[in-house]
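Response to reviewer comment R2.3. The reviewers asked that we include at least one raw input/output pair. We reproduce the pair for ATP-binding cassette subfamily B protein here without editing.
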Amino acid sequence: MKTALRGIWLVVAKSVRVSPWQSLLCMAESLGGVISLLQPLYLAWFVDGVLHHDTGKMALAVAAVAASTGLSGALNMAGCDARVRQFERVGFAFDTEIARITASIPTLDHLESSKYLDQLQALRDQQGALGGALNSFLNTFRNVVFAGGTLVLAAGADARLLLLVLAGLPSVVATRWIVRWQARAEEESAEPGRLATHLLELSTTAGPGAEVRVFGLREVVRARLTDAVARWRAPMVALARRTEVVNAACSVFFFGCAVAVLAWMVHDAIRGQVPVATLVLAVMLVGRLQNTANVLRWSIGNITQLARTTGRFLWLRDYEREVREAHDGTQAPPAILRDGITIEGLAYAYPEAVEPSLRDVSLHLPAGSVVALVGENGAGKSTLVKLLTGLYRPTAGRVLVDGVDLADLDLPAWRARVSGAFQDYAKVEFTAQESVGVGDLPRVDDDREVRRALREGAGEDVLASLPSGLATQLGSSWPEGVELSGGQWQRLAIARGMMRTEPLLLVLDEPTAALDAATEHALFERYAEAARAAGGRGAVTLLVTHRFSTVAAADLVVVLDGGRVAEVGTHAELVAARGHYAELYELQARGYR
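Raw output as returned:
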């Protein structure tokens, strides 16, 4: 109940903030419903006037019906129009808020969590439901008011009509089952829904489309997509079937009771114990009394649905607040590094993972040094990079920047002093100038700096191939857009990482995977020279690679194996030690002989 009230308050408060007057106007529909509620009473007056030849009462009844119909219709139109307008506005406000929350969560842990992704998928499946939650609440309020008025009329006409309220109770009780079925159906459909979306992207996007066609996977993907869609929608189909069976059974029971009550009243009317006008009113109220049970059931289901939908939004908002509170540091990062970056007992486990990706990692990255981080695929190199940049929260241990815990630093300020190129680089389909320049937003329009970054990132040849130079639109899906090769996109990503000229931490996380080994070696040597030239500010340059031949220029080599630090030393020291590094180095070296 507390969750439902919190959800109602969230929706109403959002509506009032979006447009207070429009929110007030939405209530006109409920007022119109109250006015139309009395029309069966006016008809009973008319029948009584006919029976008693009372033209005054007949005229009053006709006037009341006409006035209530006109006024109710006008209020319903005004309220309905306001409700639809507010539905769109509130829905847009919630969609904007969801996008803002999702984009502003300072870490990336949530994108690795199946629980988070299932919640987000459920929100997507119920797209517009948060705007619709206001609509549901207003409809519920209007119908509850209408149902309450109907009960008052029924009690005033003949107490036996209240027996029909009891006959509608099974329908209300059944709501509890239907609500549980709905919640289970939404949960069961979330994961296959995500799978269906993924398979659809495999089938309809250019990147994976090549492999799908070359390997003859179209029928396989289509079959799996068909199965995923079927499993995605199956819970909802089963829900609809169960619900309709329950509805039919409850309706049969209600109308059976209604026939018995009306037969009883007709019998008394024939004997003169019940006025004919009362019987007419009773006949007209039977349908409304059934609707009363349905309205109560529908309202319970609506409020429960509203609570589930707003509950997901509130979960997302609470998650963002939790992450922000965990990164509530306010201390500014140092202007220069004097000691360096120290890692103490660092561990990290991905959400829902059985085994940690990193465990008990302790290192010191000296200020002004070039550090090569090497290891086989899955050793934990990229995970360590994300911990150093604050993209992940450590499961255990800490990262110290000149002796200050990274958790105590202002995270956006620390990120402003970090730069790099990453293994999973983004294809920023802006102009070439913007695609590189966004690496340092204040200088995104500075041609000279963008060209410098391209030179340092070995991207001059990419620029030379573009028909309009830096003004070229990238991406073939845009008008006059130019598509680039994987290596060209990667060089632009490297250049983007070169835009910041004074980072305290420069991370190059396998940024040259699409380049040949010789080019990678040359680039890493260039980076090492540039890093030493800028050593006055104590910057740490971290070169991440699984190619051991490129790291000889590094001051320090760190070898990761199975999420642990296996060896630390210079290239020469590790080769001489004849340990894990030397073994892997020799294995790779054979491939080039």
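The longest strand covers residues 340-348. The radius of gyration is 35 Å. Further pairs are available on request from the corresponding author.
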